Amino acid sequence: LYLGPVDNTPAGRAVSMVDFHDPDFAAYPGFRDALAQAQVAELDAGDALYIPALWWHHVEGLSDFNVLVNYWWRDTPRWLGQPQDALNHALLAIRDLPEDEKRHWRAMFDHYVFSDDPAVAAHIPEPERGVLAPLTPDSAGKLRAFLLRALSR
Questions:
Q1: What's the pTM?
Q2: Which of 16, 120, 142, 147 could lock 1 by a disulfide, CB 3.0 to 4.6 Å apart?
């Protein structure tokens, strides 16, 4: 979808750089495939549409007066961090590393962040697992304080 900047956005999330009313298929050739997969929902007054988190979508008003209300919610506790903050930090700390280092960090993220395998920390005694133990409000607060100190250097 040819996403724009992730740090300079109208609503805090990256948006497509494509003009949906006059797409430049020479500049954005993959957009033709995206359009072929697109679904359209036309709503009437009083209708609502649920769009799952992280689903790309385009919205436009078809009459002279329209109201659009967005509400973002999470089923996860508020004390967990924001994934966008992790992405921004990874852009700072990992993106411009040499390829071989990025490959190792990708494996580390896959192992420690994206794996649901309980064996990841099973070999470490429970009291010593630190951030590898399931997060609690207290341990999340300690991790947040650690990150704040690290980022302020």
A1: 0.82
A2: 16
